[in-house]
Amino acid sequence: MVSAVNTTGEHSDRGLRRAARDIITLTEPLFDALAELAEACRRDVDLTLPRPFDDEASWSAFAPAADHVLRTHVLATGVGAAVIGEESADGTASMAWWIRRDGHVSRKRHVMNPQSDSFYDVRHLRWFRVPMATGRPALFGPYVDSWGTDDITLTAAVALIVDDRRVGVVAADLDTRQYLDLAEAVLRETGVSALLDDEDRVVVSSDPSIDTGSRIASLGQAVTGRETIDELNWSLARLGGQSANRS
């Protein structure tokens, strides 16, 4: 579950706090679904196997939970898990993933063979390695999913924890356009300038002159207010006037 809003740094105001609550309202149901998906993975998949999802039975056991998320959460367009089994000799992950297209849910297979030129090594992708390192839920993107769909993607991810050990990640790709449109509406209603990711890059802005992906420090505007959203490691910013770093 996404935790409460936390005020940090600059002056906070009611607009920022309301925007943060609305972003939580928008995002929390998907993280709740991922928590349920993680529980289904622990319950139904043999995570002691070296590469659990090389086993067809693991796909079949996990499929109903994945299908349920995709059919009940309109923002989710893809969902699955990447797991490093307890006895994995080389530490590579196995992965099970499903996508929804035109109302139809189907499996999407990734190349998980390290000897292949198309090897999808999730260990180096932020949506996998950050939850594995921190144990905290997070949102990542927008980014180009160059090893998946080649689409602009937002990914929500939570660590898969077994006996206090992080063995993998459960994640969902979001309908990026729909999410950004909804988040932008929140910013416009509250007068907040931008939603920022954990690297202080703009996820979406209410100002059409500010592009997604821009670093807030490069905009030449002072940050007059900021509100963090715990667990997501994102924040909201109000901009105004010229930055002290610009002449």
TrEMBL record:
Domain of life per record:
Bacteria
Which Gene3D superfamilies does the entry mention? PAS domain
Q: What is this protein called?
A: Cache domain-containing protein
Question: Lineage in the entry?
Answer: Bacteria, Bacillati, Actinomycetota, Actinomycetes, Propionibacteriales
